[in-house]
Amino acid sequence: MKAIRIIGVLAVAVGIAGALAGTAAADTPAGEADLGFAHFVKSGTTVDVPTLARCLVDVTASGSSGPVVQAGVAFGGGNGSCTRTVVDPSTDVTSTHSTVTGQNFELSALVGAGGPRIKIDSYRLTCDGTPGHTSASWGFSGMSGLPPLPSPVPAGYTQMIKKADGAVLATAVFDTITQPGDGSTSMTMLTINFAPDSGISGSVTVGDTACAPTP
């Protein structure tokens, strides 16, 4: 496997008191990671890939998935790990580490409409939580079917996926970040949203992670 190049990194720091109050009320999990999922309809056929290899801090420490292949999309499998560690036994202060690594993603659903076959050899997302601080990153290797990304990749960076005559078949959105203001972070590596000219409705998501400041 090629080395995964880290493409996007985000760190969020807040006051400890605010982080603790926000964590109690936030919808962001203490720590989460997954390979992605898909739901779209093409030519009357529904393709539904559930969230793969999901892990949750304090709930499911690890998640795994073998290859999942459906019409127009394939996830090659991978593993997630979400853990909490006590870093100060005298005060029970903790940190969390949530990460997922996937391989051999392929989207072929657009080929019949004149679009590209999109492949990603491997990808990884990570989110770390400490008291008053979260940081998240993502990276991949071996992407084909889409233009090269800028460096660094801006949050919400969007590419139009077109066929030869210029018709937009889908949009590819990289580095979607959600920050509810309590110090927590949610990050999605890639979301492909199908456009009407593709004849497909729905979307495909590749790689999610999230975490909140720890108590």
Write the layout of secondary structure elements.
Layout (H helix, E strand, L loop, with lengths): L4 E9 L2 H10 L5 E12 L2 E8 L2 E2 L5 E4 L2 E3 L2 E3 L2 E11 L4 E15 L10 E13 L2 E12 L12 E6 L5 E11 L6 E10 L5 E12 L4
Antiparallel strand pairs: 1-11, 2-3, 2-4, 2-15, 5-8, 6-7, 7-9, 8-9, 9-10, 10-11, 12-13, 13-14, 14-15
General description of the model:
The protein is mainly beta and 215 residues long. It has one domain. It has one helix and 15 strands; from the N terminus they run E-H-E-E-E-E-E-E-E-E-E-E-E-E-E-E. It has one helix spanning 16-25, and strands spanning 5-13, 31-42, 45-52, 55-56, 62-65, 68-70, 73-75, 78-88, 93-107, 118-130, 133-144, 157-162, 168-178, 185-194, 200-211. Strands 1, 5, 6, 7, 8, 9, 10 and 11 form an eight-stranded antiparallel sheet that branches. Strands 2, 3, 4, 12, 13, 14 and 15 form a seven-stranded antiparallel sheet that branches. Strand 6 and strand 7 (73-75) form a beta hairpin. The longest helix has 10 residues, at 16-25. It is elongated. The termini are far apart.
